[in-house]
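Technical annex, item 7. During the second reporting period the consortium partners agreed on a shared format for inverse folding records so that results from different sites could be compared directly. Each record opens with the tokenized structure and is followed by the designed sequence. A conforming record, contributed by the partner at site C, is shown below for reference.
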């Protein structure tokens, strides 16, 4: 993938934002009768600080994984934060959350002057931790809110199973001979098909993923797991702070709400429209659902747009044929 292939459709962006906004308004009309959610300015400020801190922790995690792949090309923490925020922006303004991974990979490949395929392997490895932590957590929490959480349990189990299988396949792409028989067979079929279509890009992706797995020892994996849990919980604490002294919600319910919503949003809806609201509504009152959903969505989009302009990536994309 090269810069000429990076296309940002303004119509698609506007459409996705409109869909998300419409879903939030519709939810608000049904549950609150268009009563605007209560906002405490102090709570809003503290919530923003914690929310930004969550993104910062996620940037530290990205740096930790990147060092395993390219120790000689370590970037400043700001660059990893920019990559994470650009990924968040693209996940929220494209029809599916998968838009975030290519955006992060592109930014890192540009900054490190390396192939996109190499850093796409890095972000795919990174997203595995998000999937396993949020999905497993959501499935466990869902057991206390049956039957409302049955759809989330299904999504969480399917998500974990799919990405677990993907990990086994990706880990053995370069050397399938030592893999279990069924994995070996699938990998060889995939290798035969994709290597013909993608050529060196496929080899670069496969070898990079293998390098990361081999260099991520138990200590580094533990650190990455802890960082993942911390920043995911900080997103939940953000929700709690938004409703502090306004809505009768404890911190546990706020964290659980975020895990349920994050897992539900794995379904491919534009910007998580509908799925996020459903996950949040299981443990949160309607007013806090709208307040937290709108805060998380629009704050991420605004920060991502600031990075898009400040980092110069927008001009590079437009200069090379993006829209």
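Designed sequence (site C submission):
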């Amino acid at each position: 993938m090269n810069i000429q292939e990076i296309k940002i459709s303004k119509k698609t962006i506007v459409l996705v934002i409109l869909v998300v906004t419409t879903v939030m308004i519709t939810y608000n009309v049904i549950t609150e009768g268009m009563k605007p959610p209560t906002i405490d300015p102090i709570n809003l400020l503290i919530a923003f600080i914690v929310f930004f801190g969550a993104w910062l922790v996620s940037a530290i995690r990205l740096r930790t994984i990147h060092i395993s792949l390219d120790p000689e090309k370590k970037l400043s923490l700001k660059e990893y934060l920019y990559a994470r925020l650009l990924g968040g922006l693209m996940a929220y303004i494209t029809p599916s959350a998968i838009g975030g991974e290519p955006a992060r990979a592109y930014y890192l490949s540009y900054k490190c002057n390396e192939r996109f395929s190499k850093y796409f392997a890095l972000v795919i490895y990174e997203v595995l931790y998000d999937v396993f932590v949020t999905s497993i957590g959501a499935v466990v929490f869902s057991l206390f809110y049956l039957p409302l959480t049955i759809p989330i349990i299904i999504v969480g189990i399917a998500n974990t199973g799919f990405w677990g299988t993907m990990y086994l396949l990706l880990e053995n792409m370069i050397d399938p001979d030592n893999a279990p028989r069924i994995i070996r067979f699938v990998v060889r079929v995939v290798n035969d098909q994709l290597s013909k279509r993608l050529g060196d890009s496929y080899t670069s992706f496969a070898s990079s993923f293998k390098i990361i797995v081999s260099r991520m020892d138990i200590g580094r994996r533990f650190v990455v797991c802890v960082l993942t849990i911390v920043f995911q919980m900080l997103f939940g604490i953000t929700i709690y702070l938004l409703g502090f002294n306004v809505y009768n919600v404890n911190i546990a319910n706020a964290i659980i709400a975020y895990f349920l919503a994050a897992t539900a949003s794995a379904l491919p809806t534009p910007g998580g429209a509908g799925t996020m609201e459903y996950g949040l509504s299981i443990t949160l009152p309607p007013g806090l659902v709208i307040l937290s959903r709108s805060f998380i969505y629009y704050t991420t989009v605004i920060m991502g747009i600031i990075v898009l302009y400040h980092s110069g990536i927008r001009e590079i994309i437009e200069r090379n044929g993006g829209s």
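The chain has a mean pLDDT of 82. The longest helix spans residues 41-69. All partners now use this format for quarterly exchanges.
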